[in-house]
Design goal:
Length: about 280
């Protein structure tokens, strides 16, 4: 919890979800349309890509291009290696061409990229240093995509340890935090292949951890993207973006209420943390 009850700066955490990450664009559009500014932003995997484009000033109207970028076929290339079947070389080239060879601290909006150290299990957040290697590491699905080495660490998908990176927003200075859950409705497709078994198993494991992470957010935006693919939504990207807009719209009242009565919410949360669990009602949800 932020220690300053008068801090109303907003931090937005964008979660992972592969091609479903296009929905983050819809969330950002709805917030902008409602005159809600984002002061800090963090992201994991697909969320790290969208967060980076937004933080570096790419206009939302032009982010539809991410529908092509957030496709497995577009960003991954087969490259058999000891630690993975594919590499992020194509993604690296695409990002370098689009965003340039920049550092994270150069972003117009303070940005954090979430990754996981595959040797220790630690969550590693990058708020400075080269942007593109951090994004590639955050999107490196373990077992499929080769890890990315940064500063002597082997790093993979941040979703393994922190799928919706909320805590880092408070450390960066946010007073009100918003978490976007791309798998807000826990519907998993029926398995029909080995790939389905693997992806469903990973989703279930990540979702169980994500539930605890989201409890730390002041406002959670859960999205129902069960009708869309994790691999490719290029042909339905407008529908995915609209799902993000609709999900954010449903939570605007909660967000505006939190901003208007932030001091009261601060006191409420302080009470919840201070008193025993059995005595928390009626303060807890």
């Amino acid at each position: 919890m932020n220690l300053n009850p008068f801090n109303r700066k907003i931090g937005l955490a964008l979660g992972g979800g592969a091609a479903k990450g296009i929905a983050h664009i819809g969330v950002l559009k709805r917030l902008k349309h409602s005159d809600i500014s984002v002061d800090f932003i963090s992201g994991t995997s697909a969320g790290a890509i969208v967060a980076s484009y937004f933080a570096f000033g790419k206009k939302l109207e032009n982010l539809n291009e991410l529908a092509n970028l957030l496709r497995a076929q577009a960003v991954l290339n087969f490259k058999m290696g000891k630690l993975g079947l594919m590499s992020t070389d194509k993604l690296r080239d695409y990002l370098k061409n689009d965003l340039g060879d920049v550092n994270i601290e150069d972003a117009k909006i303070p940005l954090a990229i979430c990754t996981t150290d595959v040797n220790t299990g630690e969550t590693i957040h990058f708020t400075s240093g080269p942007l593109i290697p951090a994004i590639c590491a955050s999107a490196a699905v373990p077992g499929l995509v080769q890890p990315v080495e940064i500063d002597g660490r082997l790093l993979v998908d941040g979703g393994i340890s922190n799928n919706v990176p909320i805590d880092i927003l408070t450390e960066m200075g946010a007073g009100i935090t918003i978490g976007v859950d791309l798998n807000g409705v826990k519907n998993y497709p029926e398995v029909d292949s080995l790939f389905d078994v693997i992806t469903n198993s990973m989703d279930i494991a990540i979702d169980l951890r994500t539930r605890d992470q989201l409890k730390r957010a002041d406002v959670v935006i859960p999205l129902d993207l069960s009708a869309f693919s994790r691999l490719d939504n290029k042909d339905s990207f407008k529908d995915v973006i609209k799902a993000g807009e609709d999900g954010a719209k449903d939570k605007l009242f909660s967000l505006k209420q939190n901003r208007a009565f932030h001091l009261l919410y601060y006191v409420r949360n302080l009470i919840i943390e201070a008193i025993p669990f059995k005595l928390r009602w009626p303060f807890s949800n």
